[in-house]
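Re: duplicated header lines in exported structure tokens

Our pipeline writes sequence and tokens for each protein into one text file. With two proteins the header for the second block appears twice in some exports. Here is an export where it did not happen, for reference. First protein block:
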Amino acid sequence: MNQYEYRAALEATGLNQSSAARLFGVDPRTSRRWASGELEVPRTVALCLRMMASYSVPVIEAQVLADGVGESGEITDEQRDALLDRIAQGRRNIDKTLIERFGESGVAGSGLPTSNLPDDE
């Protein structure tokens, strides 16, 4: 991800350079350096931003996924429930993909964790 893509990803996700720095646990100068092209955007940051943009993940959900909910209870019960539903659905999608790719026995023998969540179907 180059600096232009980084700035576009911030805009697409509703982040600014300061909030991105908080989300990714870096100094605000680091985010500015990513945006200017002075530093390469780490692959994990690029992946996270692309996934947030692709799946329309709100910033608050990304923050909760990264940090959990603090004592201040920064999200509403409705937001928390929506987040938990989204996480559960994501886990089911991952399980389905693993099973399609490796089969039931392949997944079980792979050591890869599965969610054991019931299907919504």
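Second protein block, exported in the same file:
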Amino acid sequence: MSATIARAPRSYPGQVGLTCGEANARSVIDSFGVAYQTPSRTRIWVKLFGHSLLTDLRLLMEAHGLAAPVRHAGRLNRDLKVRVLKSHVDAGNPVVVAIGNGHLRRGRYVWWARLLLGHYLTVYGYDDARRVFYVYDSYLRGRPPAPLPAGNETRSYAEMLRDWKGPIYYRLIGRNHAYLPVSRRGDAARPDRRAAAKAPSDP
């Protein structure tokens, strides 16, 4: 079985500087057909580093009429972590995921970078046959080797689980295994609750 969200964005531009949070937010907002509006008032932190905090991303989405609650999947086992992401795609909603970024260039992975660099990417679809997610990674430049149904890159389920642990400092600030499922405000669907109803803790 494979699935791709119906509302993929029109384009996947690269981020400028440390603005992966805002780049992913703009992509998601565009996928809902909403015109992006630059906030008129922002905190100093946001001006310096972009919308890099989970709360900043949530507020930015809410300012555009979207719901983006901050959730954590740390207590789920590996299979349920994958199932939670897929459940939101099945509901037609993208998922912004906080990860550790070892993909410094397309086709090249640097293991130690994942331990140091925080990053966001957005899941727009998946393919069970290939065991991959279709994602938007704003750090990557250029086009993927082959056309994709959504996103600008693929991540295998195993790669997603590895990177979702985040860099070392995520554990200190409570961001490891964090994600923001995005839907139109007022949509009360909680597919992750159904997916993780009987979730054991991670080993």
